[in-house]
Design a protein that fits this description.
elongated, 8-stranded mixed β-sheet, disordered C terminus, alpha/beta, single chain, 7-stranded mixed β-sheet
């Protein structure tokens, strides 16, 4: 297969990207597209892109020497592998694969770049279904390192191995997935968007605030609303709706009515000039407005037990005194109100237990390096007590965003649900723990793999967050993965990889 040409069908963004990485890796590439002249135009653009990369010193190849030829599907007879990157329509893909079987050799690998359609369904009815495999690249293909290799029910292990070796030879990092809805990345990533929409629908915080906190506190490279505007709400909402239907309308994947309204209005994002944010001439870039400077910075606070908020206290200008050993490591402000790290409960729920005003502080990827933080106060909390909390956190160098008192706040609920969906996929043997974390880091640029993140928080903490939120909403959205409950009962940590977790 190393000497035979690589066939690519579809000269759009994804197909051209796949053709480019194959050619740059030294393979002969045949590129086909149903539209007249599309393949030839794509090849010209590929050479231009590669030349720019060479001029910048990022590649060391001769753009004019790349072996890429435009052809029709009938010219694929000598290919060792054919990758289709056409429209996401199962019937269309099945017809294409059936046509290819009449052209290529019996041992030619037929790979699909589909982001969600199952190779099991695509291979049904073929004479050689064992040679159909999913080979899911990420956009932009030349820049993104991840490739998901998806095995259908009929896929030969040798074919899956060969597809993985091929992607590896093209400089990609390969993860393996079974043919379940949305595979690894698009399945596990749904809460990153879903929690943002739920927060917006509950009027807990505006989109600018959600984005600012998931980047400044959560460590994500881009906030969910900015990312959805970039990808396109028509695309993002369609994927969510497809995953929801594929999982039997599981409430964990329920699409947002607010996003549906944006799609129906034609506000798809950057490509239409309007999404959640505006992108027309003169539009101001989105920016969150944190709480204004507070002068009521407490001189000292009392720490009851070792508080998980201690890194924030150490960053601040306050003196920390040692108090009793109240459960949960609460921090007492001079006003008598308590600061508590978010554990999934609302501030009102915590206040009802401790019988004091409470300000809940959101979690962060790393309290020592976070630049922003969310807080929420219990009902009836005196403004002076909230000012003390805000002043303390501002003295730690943080942008403080006061949001509505909703369970899980912003970072806590988002990360807990990402951990939950990763554990759910692991429990269903979709992929190994290592591949799940690798896929989420490289496929969507998460700062940590969700299983590693969950391991940092600990299984009991993640489970407590999910159970508290499920008890609050009672809609099935936050139900915990069975694997999390099993690990909690057996007092096992949530590791990067468990034996036998493939």
């Amino acid at each position: 297969m190393t000497d035979a040409p690589v066939g690519v069908i579809g000269a759009g963004t994804m197909g051209a990207g796949i053709a480019q990485v194959a050619a740059v890796a030294g393979r002969r590439v045949l590129l086909a597209d149903a539209a007249d002249g599309a393949a030839a135009r794509a090849i010209e653009k590929i050479r231009e892109r590669v030349k720019r990369q060479v001029d910048k010193g990022r590649l060391n190849v001769d753009p004019d020497a790349l072996e890429i030829t435009a052809t029709g599907v009938d010219g694929f007879g000598g290919c060792g592998v054919v990758v289709e990157a056409i429209v996401e329509d199962l019937d269309v893909k099945k017809r294409l694969l059936a046509d290819l079987e009449r052209v290529v050799a019996a041992d030619t690998i037929l790979a699909s770049n589909s982001s969600s359609l199952s190779p099991t369904a695509m291979a049904a009815g073929l004479e050689h279904p064992e040679r159909v495999v999913g080979l899911h690249f990420f956009n932009p293909v030349p820049a993104m390192k991840l490739v998901e290799v998806i095995s259908g029910l009929a896929t030969s292990p040798a074919v899956a191995d060969a597809a993985a070796d091929l992607a590896g030879a093209w400089g990609k990092t390969v993860v393996r997935s079974t043919a379940t809805p949305a595979f690894i990345v698009n399945r596990i990533a749904r809460p990153f968007y879903a929690e943002a929409w739920r927060l917006l629908e509950e009027h807990a915080a505006g989109p600018e605030t959600v984005d600012a906190l998931l980047t400044g506190a959560g460590g994500f490279r881009m906030g969910p609303f900015t990312l959805m505007d970039l990808v396109g709400h028509d695309v993002n909402e369609a994927v969510t709706r497809s995953v929801w239907a594929s999982f039997g309308y599981d409430p964990r994947y329920t699409p947002s009515l607010a996003q549906r309204a944006i799609v129906e209005a034609g506000r798809f994002g950057r490509k239409t000039g309007q999404g959640v944010y505006s992108y027309g001439d003169g539009a101001q870039p989105p920016g969150a407005a944190p709480a204004g400077p507070v002068t009521a910075v407490p001189a000292s606070v009392t720490e009851h037990g070792r508080s998980p908020l201690r890194p924030l206290l150490d960053r601040s200008s306050v003196t920390v005194r040692t108090g009793g050993t109240l459960a949960g490591g609460l921090v007492e402000l001079p006003s008598g109100a308590f600061l508590a790290q978010c554990a999934g409960l609302t501030a009102a729920a915590v206040a009802s237990v401790v019988e004091r005003p409470v300000i809940v502080v959101d979690r962060a990827l790393d309290y020592e390096s976070a630049s922003a933080i969310a807080v929420a106060a219990s009902d009836g909390c005196p403004p002076a007590a909230l000012d003390e909390a805000v002043g303390l956190l501002q003295s730690a160098g943080l942008d403080v965003h006061v949001i509505e008192d909703v369970p899980g706040l912003i970072v806590t609920r988002t990360v807990a649900m990402l951990v939950n969906m990763a554990a759910d996929a692991l429990g269903a043997h979709v992929a190994s723990a290592e591949d799940i974390d690798t896929a989420m880091r490289l496929g969507v640029n998460y700062p940590l793999g969700p299983l590693t993140w969950g391991g940092r928080w600990g299984v009991p903490a993640v489970l407590a967050i999910l159970d508290s939120m499920e008890d609050w909403y009672r809609d099935g959205h936050y139900r915990a993965a069975p694997l999390l409950r099993r690990w909690a009962l057996s007092e096992r940590a949530l590791p990067h990889q468990q034996p036998g977790s493939r």
